[in-house]
Each structure stands twice: as C-alpha cells, then as structure tokens.
Description:
This protein has helices at residues 3-28, 39-42, 97-100, 159-165, 179-188, 222-232; strands spanning 86-87, 94-95, 105-109, 126-133, 136-143, 150-151, 171-174, 195-198, 207-208, 218-221, 244-246, 259-264, 268-275, 280-284, 304-310, 312-314, 325-327, 331-339, 342-350, 358-360, 368-370, 374-380, 384-388. It is of the alpha+beta class. Among the domains are: 86-232, YerB-like fold, CATH 3.50.90.10; 244-301 and 330-388, YerB-like (YerB-like fold). β18 (331-339) and β19 form a beta hairpin.
Amino acid sequence: MSRTAVIALGVLAVLGGLGLGMFAALAASPAGTPPTGSGLVAGLGSTPPSSGPRIIPAPSASTGPSASTVPSVAPTPTPKPTPVLVPDPLTGRLVSPAAAARHPIAVMIDDLSPARPQSGFNAASIVWQAPAEGGIPRYMMVFQENIPTDVGPVRSSRYYYIAWAAELKAVYGHAGGSPQALATLRNQGNGQLVYNADEFRWGNSFRRVTFRFAPHNLYTTGKQLRAIAASVGAKDGPIKWPWTFARDATMGWRPVGGRIQVSYGNVNTIRFDYDRKSNTYLRSVTGEKKQVDNATGKRVQPKNVIVMIMRFGALNDGHPQKHRLEAKVIGSGPAWISTNGITIKGTWKKTSLTSATRFFDKAGKPVVLTVGQTFVQVMKTTDRISFVPGKAAPPDPFPAGPRPE
Length: 405
C-alpha cells in the first residue's frame, strides 16, 4: 500500500470516530436538546470540549446584549377620533357642530356699478337681492356656517330686508337706512327682530377702503361682525330653519345647459347659466360677464336659484325724491325654484314678520333644495324674467342616485 493511501485511511477513521461520537451524544440527550458534551455543538467546533459537561450561562446585565443592539419598537399611535359633523341648517352642508350653531349675520351690500365686484358672496349661506331705491337692487348676504374675510361695500337698510333678517333674528349690519327701517331698528333692534349693527354705532368695526370712492367704499370683516355679535348678546345655539336639502343629483339626471335671466328695470340684468359638471348656476351681472367675489377672486355660482314675485310700491316716508320702496313682504306669491338644472313653478309664503319665507311646489309640498348656497331673486311684478330649459342628458348606463323633483 502506498504512503498516500495510508494517510487517507487514517483521515477516514478519525472522521468516522467523530460521527459515531456525535450520534452517541445525540442518542443520550433529551429529545430536541443539543448535547452539552459536544464541542461542535457548544462551540461550533472551534475549541475542544473539557472533560466535564459544558454549561452556557444565561445572559446577564453584563453578558447580555447592549441596549444599542436591541431593536426599538415604535409606539402604536393613538387613532384620532373621527370628527363629528352635522348638517348646517341654512345650506345642508356637513359642518362641525360649532359652525352649525353660529348666530347668523346679515349684511346690506351695494349693487351699483361702482361697487362691483363686491366682497363676501362665496362665504354667504343665503343671498337675497331685491329692489331698493327707484328699482335699483341691493343685496343682503347672510353668513352663518362661514366667517368671511372682507365684506362690502356696506349700504343702508330697508324695512323688508329687516323682515328677511328677522327670520333668523340675525345680527343686521348696515350703514344707516330709510326712516321706516331706522325706526324699526330703534324699537326692535335689540334682539326682538334683529340685533342692530349700524355702522354709525359700531364705527370701529367698519372701515373706508382706498380702492373705491364714497359711498361705495365701506367695508367690514367676518371677524369684526362676530365681535359685534358677542357685544350685542347674539349667542350661538341651535337654529330652527324649515328649508330641507338633498345631495346633488347624479350626472345622469342632470340636463345639459339651461339659463335663468332676470332684469331689475334697466339697471341690472342677472343671468345664471347652469353648469352640468359642477351642478351650479354660473352668475353674471350687467358689466361683468363672469361675476366674481372680490374677496376670493372666484366665480359666484350658487347651487340653488329662487325667483319670487312680490308687490312693491312707493314708500311714503316724506322723502319722495329718494324714490324708496316698500314691499308686501308678508303674504304669498309665485316663485320659480331652480336646482339640479331643473326649474319648477311654485309659491312662496311668509306668514309673519319673523317666520321663514318658505317655498312650495304646485302640489303644495315644500321644495327640496340641493346642498349648498341659495340665491333668492326678489322681483317686482313688472320686472322681466325668463327661463330657458336645458336639454335632456345623454343616456347614463348607471343612473343610480337621487332624481330631481
């Protein structure tokens, strides 16, 4: 036998002995427990075992892993509670309970051409527009869920606007007014009908801007109006309001196009073009093809437009040169209600000075408006109004959702 063969047989004998030793140790150990006498198991074959059993000490503060080697576990974040939202009484939008309970604030707004574009439209929940002097219209913006930035130009009061503000016992912002209106505010402006917020009394809450000339330059802010509300004791709280709202009709029920147009004599013609995509009425006025809110720079586009006919006459207040008007604000009359691109003819009703103006369809049922802002156009019996219906929408393969009434 060669020397190389002898060496190979010796190596095989040594490896065979190690294998037999490991097999014997595994057989003598408890099931699943590594044999303590095997240096290959205990020390991975790096050091021969001692004559006695090898004991591996448990980790201690000194022998265990350092804090830097222990993986950190991020604490589980506490989930934030879902905010509670409630329908706003004047728009139906989901808002916080605090916003839904804000005391309403109504502000008289100029509508002569030097006053345009006005500020505050897009923050208002309801906007009233009606004739004021000699047929020249004026706005009353009602703020409730939103606190506007700039509001103006602020103008004077009229009695029938007080009647609409009284429906909500609103804080009523204005700059002077007709003798009839001022007498009403003196006698019933401490919360009986409204809370009187006349600029002549609350001058520090109003300012004259430099980018307009008087009298079209009187402005205020929502923050200042809220401060007046706190000062006069107009507290926040639940609001009872009879108007009801539903979510937008799905696209399949909305028509394509459609237009509403009303004219206050030869002074101001207002046009609403229905926009199917946004389900709003894009508003334009004489001199402004696209009416915008000067406070935001955004288009004025309410969700609902109501046109109501009311009897107006000359106000016998001793100042015939002013051409002031009075209106039969309590009673009823024809109304056209436009929402979701559909216009129906119905009726408006107001039973007392402080009761809400309500709107009914031809069957006498209260109308349901779409969630969002409402414009109310109050017109004289001699004013021009017109409605151009939209075209039927193309077939929708998925027409689920509320159908316009």
